[in-house]
Design goal:
By secondary structure, the protein is mainly α. It has eight helices and five strands. The strands form two sheets. The chain has a three-stranded mixed sheet, sandwiched between helices. The protein has a two-stranded antiparallel ribbon with strand order 1-2. Helix 1 runs antiparallel to helix 5, helix 4 crosses helix 6 and helix 4 crosses helix 7. Belongs to the peptidase M48 family.
Length: 267
């Protein structure tokens, strides 16, 4: 009986979801939550991050980040261009993020690897690429589906072999879902955000070739990393090779943007 109710719940979830096509032509399952709910979740997460801080009070660096964010978001579809908010965190870890609802967070540590405005644009455009490609929606939908499937697995095993077997099945299934389902999807998303972000930065008038330099700086600054199969990011050397290939293709887009007057001067 329990398994039947869980199965019905999963069927309802799948019905609520939708199949769509990502910016690179990949099939996505999205729709577990509405766009309004995603925006609310993004705003809540951003507010919590800012409350924990600490935020940087460096006016020049804040203006620098804001300038790059504005230049990139002006290349988004008309309805998605306005209302973007940025925050600069006084954190030495070289990192950044973007969230649904138009939120961008950047750590001051990013300046140690993003050494000019084009390299900073590569970071920010990549993170905004996650939002453009609906990766947060896709990830939530996948996680809810994985959790539902594990509940069914546990219920069926528990009904047949006892509670202990059910708990073991869920625990073992969680590992498989994480390494075989959720994380590989995350690597796909990272590659896709590279594609979308590099396109956005070129359209905004930032040099797409600097994305290669950024990742070379990241490798130089980085230490040990988990094996590729257990990572949410693509292998760095493979990533650089792909960025180099795309940058050559995007140079005409960059030159057209510059000719059209899109010449960011952020810092």
């Amino acid at each position: 009986m329990k398994a039947s109710w869980v199965a019905l719940a999963i069927a309802g979830l799948v019905t609520a979801c939708a199949t769509t096509t990502s910016p690179t032509g990949r099939t996505q399952m999205v729709g577990a939550v509405s766009q309004q709910e995603l925006n609310q979740l993004g705003a809540q997460a951003f507010s919590e991050a800012k409350s924990k801080g600490p935020l940087s009070r460096d006016a020049r660096q804040n203006a620098y980040v804001r300038c790059v964010v504005d230049a990139i978001t002006r290349q988004l579809p008309p309805g998605a261009q306005t209302g973007w908010e940025s925050a600069l965190f006084a954190n030495s870890e070289p990192n950044a993020f973007a969230l649904p609802g138009g939120k961008v967070g950047v750590n001051t540590g990013i300046f140690t690897v993003a050494r000019n405005q084009d390299q900073l644009a590569a970071v920010i455009a990549h993170e905004i690429g996650h939002v453009v490609a609906r990766h947060h929606d896709e990830r939530i939908t996948r996680q809810m589906g994985a959790q539902g499937a594990l509940s069914v697995l546990g219920a069926l095993a528990g009904a047949r072999y006892g509670q202990g077997a059910g708990e073991a099945a869920v625990q073992g299934g969680s590992v498989l879902a994480q390494t075989g389902f959720l994380l590989p999807g995350s690597r796909e998303q990272e590659t896709e955000a590279d594609v979308v972000g590099q396109q956005l930065m070129a359209q905004a008038g930032f040099d797409p070739r600097q994305a290669v330099n950024l990742w070379q700086n990241m490798i130089t600054a980085g230490g040990s990393r988990p094996p590729q199969w257990l990572s949410t990011h693509p292998d760095p050397q493979a990533r650089i090779a792909e960025l180099q290939q795309r940058s050559a293709q995007l140079v005409p887009t960059y030159e057209q943007a510059r000719a059209a007057g899109r010449r960011p001067s952020c810092g």
